[in-house]
Amino acid sequence: KKDESSKVLALRAMNGVFISRPRVVLAAEQLGIISSVISDDAPPSVQIESLKCWRDILLAEEKRIESGAARAKMMAEKKVALSKRISGDQDGDACISGSVLTKHARRLYEMKESKDDKVRLMVIDLIGHLLRQGLINPMETVPHLLAVQGDVKSPQTRALALKLLINEGEKRPEMLRQRVCAGIVQAYHFQNSVYNASGRGATALLTRDEAGRCVTETIFDAVIKESGMKNKRAQRQGLLKGILSLFEKDPGEQFDHSKLPLLSFAAEILAHLPYTTLNDPLFCVYNASCISTLDGQTVVKALAEVVGGDVCDPNSGEDEIEQAVKKGNFDAKKFGLKGKEK
How far apart, in whole angstroms, are the C-alpha atoms of residue 268 and residue 124? Predict the structure, then answer.
């Protein structure tokens, strides 16, 4: 049906069937129903309802397992092997819904860049339940949660993603530091995808009014403060090193001019991070000096090709003194200089 309201009502009805009969989910997957309701071609209202349905299915299945209903059903069956009884409190239907949804994890990550803010909120909520139940890889998910910190027009979505990041940071303290580089790249692409139509472009900065004073901060400031990363020197320097690694390149690799906006995005983050000690800016300066020592000449050469001139010599033309010396009639007094002492 082309009617959106009919599709939404149909999804709600199917939701009840999926919860009571989990194996029907396999049939829906084979028919392509699940892929169609979360595709770009589906209207936002249908996408939102499908995400709500999946959340309800996961919660219902979790409740069924924790209440012991799944185990009771398994034990009631006469033809159940001993190995199945030892497997725990889950029956054969327990993993169907989660497995099918895990198959579409990549599509869920893509849906975070939807133009509809309600879709973005619902998909982050669903990702949170998948993380809690261990159905998706945290290492792959954290960069996408970091990217949503750039959703400046949807504070509720940012707050939910921040909560999930803090939870993951408490369980795996090194993960945020290890995945910050991928998170910056995802945040840059997120803002270009979601806000590019408005002409806003990608920016890593936020401004807020604090006691009549305009305060500028980065989109990742809340993550750094709430995770406690700023109080640990090793984690802070690991974070800075991860950001600075975006500016490094392999020997012999050609400079890609298309990366300049991304590097500008990363530079904004480095310039406005909440530094608390002098060691952190000095750490950035030291690493930037190392990168310049290795790649500085290549960068200067590439910049010269862009501007179409020699950037090494800002005064490439001859001045009056050089012209006079070249002609052989140089008069020091004319230029206010002392003559050569005899």
Answer: 26
The label of the residue with tokens 């082309």 reads 2
Residues 6+ positions from 154 with CB-CB distance below 8 Å:
117, 120, 121
What would the two tokens of residue 211 be? 């006691």
Per DSSP, the residues of 226-281 read HTTGGG-HHHHHHHHHHHHGGG---TTPPP-GGGHHHHHHHHHHHHHS---STHHH
Q: What pLDDT, in 10s, does the model give residues 165-187? A: 988 888 887 787 788 888 899 99
Helix residue spans in 23-91 (DSSP H) = 24-30, 33-37, 44-66, 69-76, 82-86
Burial of 337 (0-12, 13-18, 19+ CB in 10 A): exposed
Q: What pLDDT is recorded for position 160?
A: 93
Q: Which amino acid is at 329?
A: N
Q: What pLDDT, on the 0 to 100 scale, is given for residue 77?
A: 59
Dihedral (CA of 183, 106, 3, 5) sign: negative
Angle between helices 44-66 and 4-20 (to 10 degrees): 10
